[in-house]
Design brief:
Number of domains: 1
Strand order of the largest sheet: 3-2-1-4-5-7-6
Helix content: 25-40%
Structural class: alpha/beta
């Protein structure tokens, strides 16, 4: 029995190790995407990719599932809103009128000028912003891999490029969509820690790696020790798996819309929310995230 268990744990480890991650884990001295860019041509390539995705059947399902995630349980974030009447996670009232504008934060997009997968993911982000009626200026993006040319492209598109590595530690103070495609577990764990309260979590909608998928690919005791916030969130979040065509398996696989209904959060004991400790990751040699530099 113990031999079988050991083999199963090795299989899970290999499965997790085989998954490619981009996001905030490239070496600090990486020369990725440092070649000069033609901003106009790069933007045209991105818009062509948007047009391609818009014609795909799975795009409609992504859009619909995002809207469904925001329209269910309209009272979910009423206590967090200043607008009159209950609103959903997309900041809409029951009759569909916008009461509070949704924000968006995107981490770990990668080198979209040279990486096809990253370009598709950027194109999908732009489509989702349009579908959610989120102004481009209200979408903040960051990846330490961005070259100066890619930053120019993003700003020309109208997006807000962050200049500081937040390590995912951004608190949602209003309904916020977090777009985290194929990011490392530490980034998700940091984000959950920063929002670890029954007030902040319901304000978040995450489009990114399935938490259940992370759980399945990681040895349980290590998952609970190193990524305790994801580990706890697995039992109380609501996931909707997003479809992925076989030809784009490296781009959109294992992606879900993740929300945090109040009814589920209330299942956890009150002690869960008391002074949550900041993650330290002492036992994670392969952290899958670039941490910001600190002055000694």
């Amino acid at each position: 029995m113990s031999d079988t268990g050991a083999e199963w744990q090795v299989a899970r480890r290999r499965k997790g190790a085989a998954r490619a991650k981009k996001s905030l884990q490239v070496p600090v001295n990486s020369t990725c995407c440092q070649e000069p860019l033609d901003v106009g041509k790069t933007i045209k390539r991105i818009r062509d990719t948007m047009a391609e995705l818009r014609c795909q059947e799975f795009w409609s399902e992504w859009k619909n599932q995002l809207l469904v995630a925001g329209s269910e349980d309209l009272s979910r974030t009423a206590e967090n809103q200043d607008a009159e009447g209950p609103t959903d996670q997309l900041g809409r009232s029951a009759d569909g009128r916008t009461c509070q504008q949704l924000e968006c934060v995107c981490y770990g997009l990668g080198c979209f000028s040279s990486c096809v997968s990253a370009r598709y993911q950027l194109a999908m982000l732009l489509l989702l912003l349009n579908a959610g009626q989120i102004p481009l200026r209200d979408c903040s993006v960051y990846d330490p891999a961005f070259s100066s040319g890619e930053i120019d492209v993003l700003r020309e598109l109208g997006l807000n490029v962050l200049t500081e590595n937040e390590e995912g530690k951004r608190q949602a103070t209003k309904p916020t969509l977090f777009y985290l495609m194929h990011c490392g577990k530490a980034l998700y764990n940091n984000l959950l820690w920063k929002n670890w309260s029954t007030r902040s979590l319901p304000l978040m909608t995450i489009i990114g790696n399935s938490f259940n998928g992370m759980w399945d690919r990681t040895i349980e005791r290590e998952f609970q020790r190193d990524y305790s916030y994801i580990s706890q969130a697995v039992s109380v979040c609501e996931e909707r798996q997003l479809p992925c065509p076989s030809r784009l398996i490296d781009v959109f696989s294992d992606t879900a819309v993740i929300t945090f209904p109040n009814s589920r959060l209330n299942r956890l004991p009150e002690s869960t929310w008391a002074q949550p400790p900041e993650p330290k990751y002492q036992h994670c040699p392969d952290l899958e995230i670039i941490q910001r530099e600190t002055l000694s």
